[in-house]
């Protein structure tokens, strides 16, 4: 089975530009999570979806960040406009409520650099 | 709110030896799940092992085992016969089992180096 797929793997952009990160969860999983990892703050949950519906977006840092899940197999995290402090690794993870532990499986991450 | 603490920022171990990584946590919930994730230099987050709090038996996965002490809120990871491929950051994580409680709370991580 394919794992969680993220694209792009690396993104370098200039301050003020729009950035869109993409995620394809594991087929059949009904939960999708977006995390951000930085040296200073570690791993932080930004937002998560259940059955394509956003459940908790309290971790989204600012209005510049937005996330969508138009269908069960695709989600985007958008930053507009981007700032240098947004530089981080962004992970997408998915899980299935049908399993006993709801283990979250992570994608390979997108390393974002904002110049 | 729950917290996860990993008190060892860095550790090293000789190849083929055994090493134990520490993790303590705090939660007011009685039912929860604990996880260890590994993040090698490739930065992929890989599940190593998981433990359900209601199970008294410690989880094992090949060379990886945990020492789960619920009363002490401790969840340490033991790696036996360490291999060079075990070099990575290791993160301890906690998830409660209440409705809507799908957020993983991570520790800051322990950087493990396996020395040949």
Summarize the model shown:
The complex is a heterodimer of chains A (115) and B (116). By secondary structure, chain A is an all-beta fold.
Structure overview:
- The complex is a heterodimer of chains A (115) and B (116).
- Chain A is an all-beta fold and 115 residues long.
- Chain A has strands spanning 5-7, 10-13, 19-24, 31-38, 42-50, 53-56, 65-71, 74-79, 88-95, 105-106, 110-114.
- Chain A has no helices and 11 strands.
- In chain A, strands 2, 4, 5, 6, 9, 10 and 11 form a 7-stranded mixed sheet that branches. A 4-stranded antiparallel sheet of chain A has the order 1-3-8-7, with no helix packed on it.
- Chain B is mainly β and 116 residues long.
- Chain B is 0% helix and 52% strand.
- Chain B is built from no helices and 12 strands.
- Chain B has strands spanning 3-5, 10-14, 19-21, 24-26, 32-39, 46-52, 60-61, 64-69, 74-79, 88-96, 105-106, 110-115.
- In chain B, strands 2, 5, 6, 10, 11 and 12 form a 6-stranded mixed sheet that branches. In chain B, strands 3-9-8-7 form a 4-stranded antiparallel sheet, with no helix packed on it. In chain B, strands 1-4 form a two-stranded antiparallel sheet.
- Chain B is globular, with a radius of gyration of 14 Å.
- The mean pLDDT of chain B is 92.
- Classes of the chains: A mainly beta (115), B mainly beta (116).
- Chain A binds chain B through residues 31, 33, 42-43, 45, 48, 50, 55-56, 89, 91, 93, 95, 100-106, 108-109, 111, and chain B through 33, 35, 37, 42-47, 50, 52, 91, 95, 100, 102-104, 106-109.
The poorly predicted ranges of chain A are none
- Rg from Cα of chain B: 14 Å
What do the pLDDT scores of chain A average to? Answer: 92
How many beta-strand elements of chain A?
11
Amino- and carboxy-terminal Cα gap of chain B: 41 Å
The helicity of chain A comes to under 10%
Query: Given the structure, what is the number of helices of chain B?
Result: 0
Spans of at least 5 consecutive residues with low confidence of chain B: none
One letter per element, helices H and strands E, the order of chain B comes to: EEEEEEEEEEEE
* Inertia-based shape of chain A: globular
Question: What structural category arises from helix and sheet content of chain A?
Answer: mainly beta
Measured as a percent range, the helix fraction of chain B is under 10%
């Amino acid at each position: 089975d394919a794992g969680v797929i993220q694209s792009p793997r690396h993104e370098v952009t200039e301050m003020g530009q729009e950035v869109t990160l993409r995620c394809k969860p594991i087929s059949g999983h009904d939960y999708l999570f977006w995390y951000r990892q930085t040296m200073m703050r570690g791993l932080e949950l930004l937002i998560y979806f259940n059955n394509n519906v956003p459940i908790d977006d309290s971790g989204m840092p600012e209005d510049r960040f937005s996330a969508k899940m138009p269908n069960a197999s695709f989600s985007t995290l958008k930053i507009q406009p981007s700032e240098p402090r947004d530089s981080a690794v962004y992970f997408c993870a998915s899980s299935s409520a049908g399993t006993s532990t709801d283990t979250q499986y992570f994608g390979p991450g997108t390393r974002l650099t904002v110049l | 709110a729950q917290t996860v603490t990993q008190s060892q920022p860095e550790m090293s171990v000789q190849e083929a030896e055994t090493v134990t990584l520490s993790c303590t946590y705090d939660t007011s919930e009685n039912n929860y799940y604990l996880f260890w994730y590994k993040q090698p230099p490739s930065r992929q987050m890989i599940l190593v092992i998981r433990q359900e709090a209601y199970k008294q038996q410690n989880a094992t996965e090949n060379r990886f085992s945990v020492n789960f002490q619920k009363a002490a809120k401790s969840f340490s990871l033991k790696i036996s016969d360490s291999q060079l491929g075990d070099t990575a950051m290791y993160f301890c994580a906690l998830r409660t089992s209440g409705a809507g409680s799908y957020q993983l709370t991570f520790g800051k991580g322990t950087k493990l180096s396996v020395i040949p």
